[in-house]
């Protein structure tokens, strides 16, 4: 096996300068001029995103609370775990608790950080913090003014089937489903 240069200096790109190419209400697009590892210059355009949380709301019987929501860019309804954007300066766990309550009405007694994922590394700096929520108690949802969704309960085997069949294609939900499988089998 060959030696790996753990300094990554032979792979690193370095920013020379950059401009904000687009400044929206939710996203920004950055355009940077960079130096490549071989000394040549190139440009990198990427979406700046504040990050988000994903919640796996697990009931005592092993079922999970899911959502169905229309997603405009792909013009269809998706099956998803509850999720939401982290507000500036907001603690990730506080955001997860807020989003679960707002979108579903549920609160949880127990919270566990599962992992961080980067879902679009080639063109965005977005990170998603996945949490497991247990000890669920029902309450009243408080959806944002422009938010419309429905909730339902599913089994882990249904989720796995839907991933296999292509009914679930949302990356955070696919990864959350695989984590859920490991969690329920107490393998991770």
Describe the structure concisely for a colleague:
The protein is of the alpha+beta class.
Polypeptide structure, described:
By secondary structure, this protein is α+β, with helices and mostly antiparallel strands. The chain has two domains: 14-48, no CATH class; 52-184, Nucleoside Triphosphate Pyrophosphohydrolase. The protein is 20% helix and 40% strand. The protein has helices spanning 92-104, 156-165, 171-184; strands at residues 14-23, 28-35, 41-48, 52-57, 64-71, 76-80, 83-85, 107-117, 128-137, 149-154. The protein has a four-stranded mixed sheet, sandwiched between helices. It has a three-stranded antiparallel sheet with strand order 1-2-3, with no helix packed on it. Strands 6-5-10 form a three-stranded antiparallel sheet. A hairpin with a 4-residue loop joins β5 (64-71) and β6. α2 (156-165) crosses α3 (171-184). The longest helix is centred in the last third of the chain and has 14 residues, at 171-184. The chain starts with 13 loop residues before the first strand and ends with a helix. The model has no long low-confidence stretch (mean pLDDT 95). It holds the Pfam family NUDIX.
